[in-house]
């Protein structure tokens, strides 16, 4: 296995693990020691080759198809997920209600569903951005630019929606 391929595979493994909210130690605990943190970490760094059998077992453990772990199987072959969309709730509070009302209500709903009231930032999914774009009657990329101009989204958000415009 080439070093670059191993690193891309490792990035996919890390992305799946973190999407599931698991630390390396959490993987070891959840698997009752079947998957050692040090071994999974070495797979993720690309320091250790993983056999096809072990990769299939790890995919089963994570509850994902094996192809989701293989490099080059996402649109554009990207090994890393797009940047997170993180709303700055403190800045959102300073945007005039007539502009930001729908976004404020949407964010409040997500906070309520998650029980997440830190009040500083809120991560949203690309699907949330598409829904907000419909509410604002704009394309996701135009809405992203609007939110960046309000200071509610970081400019990195452009990369997250660049390939995903409707």
TrEMBL record:
The lineage's top-level taxon is: Bacteria
Matching entries from PROSITE patterns are given as:
HTH_CROC1
What GO MF annotations does this protein's record show?
DNA binding
According to the entry, every stretch annotated as the HTH cro/C1-type domain falls at: 13-69
Q: What's a single GO BP term from this record?
A: negative regulation of DNA-templated transcription
What protein name does the entry list?
Transcriptional regulator
Query: What is the organism lineage in this UniProt record?
Result: Bacteria, Bacillati, Actinomycetota, Actinomycetes, Kitasatosporales
């Amino acid at each position: 296995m080439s070093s670059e391929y191993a690193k891309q595979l490792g990035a996919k493994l890390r992305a799946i693990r973190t999407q599931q909210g698991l630390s390396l130690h959490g993987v070891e605990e959840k698997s009752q020691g079947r998957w050692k943190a040090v071994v999974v970490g070495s797979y993720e760094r690309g320091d250790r080759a993983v056999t096809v059998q072990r990769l299939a077992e790890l995919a089963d453990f994570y509850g994902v198809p094996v192809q989701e772990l293989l490099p080059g199987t996402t649109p554009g072959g990207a090994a890393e997920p797009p940047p997170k969309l993180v709303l700055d709730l403190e800045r959102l509070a300073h945007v005039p209600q007539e502009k930001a009302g729908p976004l404020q209500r949407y964010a409040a709903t997500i906070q309520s569903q998650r029980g997440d009231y830190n009040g500083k930032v809120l991560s949203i999914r690309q699907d949330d951005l598409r829904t907000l774009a419909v509410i604002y009657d704009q394309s996701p990329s135009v809405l992203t630019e609007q939110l960046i101009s309000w200071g509610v989204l970081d400019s990195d958000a452009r990369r997250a929606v660049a390939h995903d415009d409707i």
